[in-house]
Write a structure and sequence with these properties.
This protein has an 8-stranded mixed beta sheet, with helices on both faces. It has 467 residues and is an alpha/beta fold. α4 links the parallel β5 and β6. It is globular. It contains 16 helices and 8 strands. It folds into 2 domains: 244 residues, 3-Layer(aba) Sandwich (Rossmann fold); 145 residues, Alpha Horseshoe (Serine Threonine Protein Phosphatase 5, Tetratricopeptide repeat), CATH 1.25.40. The termini are far apart. 50% of the residues lie in helices and 13% in strands.
Amino acid sequence: MKRYKTVLLLLPVFFLFSCHSRTPSKKEKDLSAIWTPVKKQYFTQGIVQKVTVTGDSVQSYAVYLPKGYHDSLKWPVIYFFDPQAAGALPVKKYSSWAEQFGYILFGSNNLKNRMASDEMNRYIRSFFDDTYKRFSLDEKRITVAGFSGGARVASTIAITDPSVRGVIACGGGLPNTRQLPSIRFDFLLFAGNEDFNLPELLDLDQYLQSQSCRHFLIRFPGKHEWPDSLVFKNAFFWLDFNAMKDSLIPQDDSLIQLFENNTLDAMHRLPSTSVRKKAELLSRMITFLQGLAPTEKYEKQLTSLYASSAYQQQQKAFAALLREESQQQQFYIRAFPSKSLLWWKDAVHNLNREIRQSTGDSKSSKLRLMHFLSLAAYMQADAALHQHKDTEAGKYVSIYKLVDPDNAYVYYFSAILAARTGDREKALNLLRKAVDLGFDKKDELATDQDFAFLRGDPEFVRITGGS
């Protein structure tokens, strides 16, 4: 068996969620055992961006209810966890499919990166408890989904709570634990071709081969992000097909045929040279439909494709790219403290040139490296700022700007450094730039001690929207 490994295990700072690793108590193992059903409350069908948890005014979540929702029926549910606590983002993004397939969607507005494990556990328990009390949920069809650190939270919940039937992990996999867990739930993975966590998810997919669970990895054109709506539609097919296989819902032959036709259409649109992508689509169709429809002819096609020299050559080249990518990641991490800013200017210039000159898998690999450097620079700068190592932070912010010049956090971090020198005008200009580029945590500026001397300044109030 290939041992599951991940590049990120070498970089523990990159596991953005603090996931508990203690053994759960018997009471904690099944959240449904502590839920106390009460009279269901009425909610408007459609999207509600903020539902406050009963008895906890600090915690809230977004919800989507299908138009046909009524508490006389039990509804399948997906709980979403975004690393920036943007609960409404995935709920809005996938609400059209929730409507078509008949799912309730919830998105936490509190769980986010770098949350202490005790606080995270409390939020998870009250989040689940509140939704169960207020809505009519099918306890046999509970799914948790997350992106990046949120995916690690989702898998942690599923590992510790047997009432969770499935995990949808986007751009992230298992929590950072020393011992690999036993996986008994359905595990659907999504990763963009330009996602720096793609190698981790490829390894996780291999590890799941040794586990008694249904699983599949879907790759899509994109970076480290929630999949677009059309790609994520596969998750709803996956959930419904698995429910059919488990006799939780009747078999829907029209839905099965729709999925099969859509997959065949996608295969027919592929260039003849895209043998690896064709193999993935064939494998997806077989995995999704086994037990529901005949798949023998697709299995024969896939076996033939795996044996072809074209596939084997492409797979070998891809594996070589991943090895080189991993080596370069480790080299760049060591270069942050040791290399000068001038060296970094040349390195980023050369990497950008290679991206322009590359195509296909090679281009995607170079883009993954650039996205990796963006996150690495963010983490290095953020850590140095928290430790008040401002000279180091200034260097890392400069590298961050070279790598990702339009990232709002480049200017937010620069504003902090300017504020610490008492430069009012520079700090305000940089904050304005950060907000213009989409900095979405303006409310946190009100308690940020670095900007305390600006509170009450009319321009600061205008920039922060009254913070």
